[in-house]
Amino acid sequence: MKKNINSLSIFGLGLIGGSFALSIKHQFPEITIYGVDQNSDHTQKALELKLVDEIKLADSLEVKQSDLVILAIPVNAIHNMLPALLTRISNNTVIIDTGSTKGTICHQVRNHPKRAQFVAAHPIAGTEYSGPEAAFPKLFAGKNNIICEFELSHRAAQDCAQWLFNLVGMTNVYMDAENHDKHLAYVSHLSHISSFMLGLTVLNIEKDEESIFNLAGSGFESTVRLARSSPEMWAPIFLQNKKYLNNALKEYISQLTHFQTKLEAGNDEELSKLMHQANKISKVLD
Amino acid sequence: MKKNINSLSIFGLGLIGGSFALSIKHQFPEITIYGVDQNSDHTQKALELKLVDEIKLADSLEVKQSDLVILAIPVNAIHNMLPALLTRISNNTVIIDTGSTKGTICHQVRNHPKRAQFVAAHPIAGTEYSGPEAAFPKLFAGKNNIICEFELSHRAAQDCAQWLFNLVGMTNVYMDAENHDKHLAYVSHLSHISSFMLGLTVLNIEKDEESIFNLAGSGFESTVRLARSSPEMWAPIFLQNKKYLNNALKEYISQLTHFQTKLEAGNDEELSKLMHQANKISKVLD
Q: Which residue numbers delimit the Prephenate/arogenate dehydrogenase domain (chains A, B) (predicted)?
């Protein structure tokens, strides 16, 4: 498979795009990697860190004729760029996106004449850090990658996606875009809101007493870790997944409110019961 | 200091009590450690793991005449036992508790004739695991220990506490019991509820689809880690800290509800603003 990939373009030189670049470079140094990013700090840093060989504009000939284009930009930018980009690429170019939502993106290009050249993916990998400096080649190793509507991609595009995710060490899981968005609302997007708002609540109360954070243990750090995440990346994800995430968030608030009323009532038994139910998460995490 | 400690009794042979036992044994193998625990699985396991030298009943002569008694039992059990235990101990015995709440416990013994033999402490250390097998000698190393109302302990008790927390590698921080409970509500207890209820919300929705948890990334795992915690330990903490925790929980629910209404309204700018504010948590975590 590899022999067909001589050049590839990566849109977005942050944690995800940069980590793909490093992983590919390590294994196939002969592939030319073009980088596209509207943030000049990112392009400069990506060159310094040797993530990419050259920086290109989004509509350059090199990008349009790349064998593979990886989109690792915020999901609103994927939504805005994908149809025109599909139109402009050569007939042999494959585009793979890495967005954390799939419904809006898949829906938008479902009837595009070049839909078959696109693979809708979501590698389940990331850290709370962002930017080119956060990239590392093993980010994806041993993790799952979700591919949606794989049957709408033609054989060469399917092969290309399998080559890419295999080389970075991921296992592919296939599902439709609606199910992806519904499940990810619960097992990823909700966690981020829970963490962002926990961070905000505590900062609002403890704003004049930074020293108090010295008293926080590893438990606090673990639950607010995701509050470091990039708003530019997450606001578009939350909005594109509004339908499912709004339900998830309402259910979370409802559980918290139930717990709060039982706490206020001093209902020891009910608090214990709720926590014992929550303990079952161990079974699915291990 | 060490020369005055020939024997000590540990009530509660779980993560905290067991880790104190291991850390002391490693450094002072000549000190006799008695273990007290009403759970016979715990006492048996504690002997097997050589956490303690002998198992004793709570009102045994050896316990009453120990140089030091460490209480590492749930905070409701500390509350129930402390006054009578103080009454029974010898005049040279020091009792140090390790409970995660301090207001109720300190209030209860404030006027006890032997109050000066007691030191109210809260070592900020723990994991989501519990029981004797979870204990390890380095649990406390490099962490903070909060001591409340230190001025009510007599000099020998103060020295004993400083010896103990120094030997396990902790730094002491001093505050009054009310302030302890107020701050810990935000930087520890609220995190646990946030995590317990996140676990419960996701389990309720995804109950028939365990395979979906394969799609969860490290972010989800980080935010629900504390949902593994022991309800027997945490229900009494939440109830003893009801006043401050109830406020904290209401504020958290209010922040989440605000976020939810902005999400529902598709208010990109406001969502980003809230997340940027939450990002400031990085400054206090690093």
A: 6-286
The nearest alpha carbon in chain B to A256 belongs to B197
- Which residues from B are below 8 Å from A277, CB to CB? 200, 203
Whether A88 has a pLDDT exceeding 80, the answer reads: yes
Q: Does A207 touch chain B (CB under 8 A)?
A: no
* CB of A71 closer than 8 Å to CB of A93: no
CA count, 13 A, side-chain hemisphere, A276: 7
Residues of chain A neighbouring B232 (CB-CB closer than 8 A) = 272
**For chain B, what percent of residues have pLDDT higher than 90?**
89
Q: What is the pLDDT of residue B173?
A: 94
B180-285 belongs to which CATH class?
mainly alpha
Whether A265 has its CB under 8 Å from any CB of chain B: the answer is no
Predicted pLDDT of residue A248: 96
The alpha carbon of residue B107 is apart from the nearest alpha carbon of chain A, in Å, by 19
pLDDT for residue B3 is more than 70: no
**Region B14-43 average pLDDT:** 97
Domain ranges of chain A: 2-175, 180-285
Question: Which of the following CATH numbers is that of domain A2-175: 1.10.3210.10, 3.40.50.720, 1.20.1560.10, 3.30.70.890?
Answer: 3.40.50.720
Residues of A whose CB is below 8 A from B200:
255, 274, 277-278
| pLDDT tens digit sequence for A172-219 | 999 999 999 999 999 999 999 999 999 999 998 886 666 677 788 888
